[in-house]
Design a protein that fits this description.
By secondary structure, the chain is α+β, with helices and mostly antiparallel strands. It is built from 3 helices and 12 strands.
Length: 215
């Protein structure tokens, strides 16, 4: 009976605990000075162009958000509009062939002239990457700066085959969470505790059940 009480109590406790989702933090930020204008990221038409923003990760990371500064009037772009996120680890070769990820998501917020899009976790190892946002059926403006102190240059992909490195930089943030090490989750710890409780209860029950007979 006592064993069942222990197991029941541990099970009820386990059911009330869930792993809280991690709040995405800024894992890379670039805030250059020397604004010179807003370029149009044109996803289609006679001369499509896409801008890719270079960033670096010092450790394995789950990337789940990206925003960029745009002084483009708020009217053409609104929360909920569909955008395409492109993520690459190289600017060599055909863009379509070297995209690590290319997928659609939506603009989740517009704040202080930053257009933000959130998405599901993308696990990346440490290294240098290039990320961009383009509109689906509409244009997105991306602010350009000539801050020579910033080494992560803006990459302009002209068409779909020729990568062009220009001397400008952009203002943007990448969001995510560090990849956790091999640490048991709360549910795993609780399962272990249930097991320990059962073993301890069984040992206690056996001690009480032993009867010594004397001749």
């Amino acid at each position: 009976m006592e064993i069942m009480k222990l197991v029941l109590a541990a099970t009820m406790f386990a059911g009330s605990v869930t792993a809280a989702p991690a709040n995405a933090a800024i894992i890379f930020s670039q805030s250059p000075t020397g604004y010179i204008g807003t370029a149009i990221n044109n996803p289609s038409g006679g001369n499509p162009q896409n801008f890719l923003n270079q960033f670096s990760l010092s450790a394995a990371t789950n990337v789940n958000g990206f925003d960029l500064r745009s002084l483009m009037p708020a009217g053409p772009v609104s929360v909920g509009q569909s955008v395409t996120i492109k993520l690459r680890n190289s600017i060599a070769g055909n863009p379509a062939a070297t995209n690590l990820f290319s997928f659609s998501t939506t603009i989740t917020s517009i704040s202080n002239n930053f257009l933000r899009a959130d998405f599901s976790n993308i696990s990346l190892e440490s290294g240098t990457y290039f990320i961009g946002m383009s509109g689906n059926g509409f244009n997105i403006g991306q602010d350009l700066f000539n801050d020579n102190s910033v080494s992560n240059k803006l990459i302009l992909i002209s068409g779909d085959t020729i990568p062009v490195r220009n001397g400008f930089v952009s203002a943007f943030n990448v969001y995510g969470d560090a990849v956790a090490g091999a640490v048991p989750e709360p549910a795993t710890w609780l399962t272990m505790l249930v097991g320990f409780a059962m073993v301890a209860g069984a040992a206690r029950y056996r001690r009480r059940s032993v009867k010594i007979a004397y001749a």
